[in-house]
Write a structure and sequence with these properties.
Number of strands: 6
Order of helices and strands: HEEHEEEE
Number of helices: 2
CATH superfamily: Hotdog Thioesterase
Structural class: alpha+beta
CATH architecture: Roll
Number of domains: 1
Distance between the termini: 30 Å
CATH class: Alpha Beta
Strand content: 35-45%
Length: 147
């Protein structure tokens, strides 16, 4: 286990994503080639709430999956010596995605991602997203390394 937390400035050095598409606010814990625990604070000011849905704001499930994918990307970079400036990872496959509870403004999503398979140019992870210790989303993801 690595107890070195990463703040948003640290994350910006690893991921190419920028506002409004950066879906990770902090990394709480990680172990290279094994797992990462990160958080996303969902605020009422998120741009997607303007249209999804104005009278009943709900975070789109696909963005919860994106948050899991970004956590996986941070884990991939932390597990090697590369950064997005060296190589980009692209989401290539989503399997077994399940959405169990809505994510609302004010929620904090805890993202748990574990490596399943890691090979030269791709990796497969399993991820779970929790709000208040309740599972809101789970999915298996595969990413491929670009050039």
């Amino acid at each position: 286990m690595t107890n070195i937390t990463l703040n948003q400035q640290d994350i910006l050095k690893l991921l190419p994503h920028r506002y409004p598409f950066l879906m990770i606010d902090k990394v709480l814990e990680w172990k290279a080639d094994d797992y990462i625990i990160a958080i996303k604070n969902v605020t009422a000011n998120e741009p997607f709430f303007q249209g999804h849905f104005p009278d009943h704001p709900v975070m789109p499930g696909v963005l919860v999956v994106e948050a899991l994918a970004q956590a996986a990307g941070v884990l991939a970079y932390l597990s090697g010596e590369d950064t997005y400036k060296d190589h980009l990872f692209y989401l290539a496959l989503i399997e077994n995605a399940k959405f169990r509870k809505m994510v609302l403004p004010g929620d904090t999503i805890k993202l748990n991602v574990h490596f399943k398979v890691r090979r030269n140019r791709f990796f497969k992870v399993t991820g779970q997203a929790f709000v208040d210790d309740q599972l809101v989303c789970s999915a298996d993801l595969m990413s491929a390394q670009g050039t």
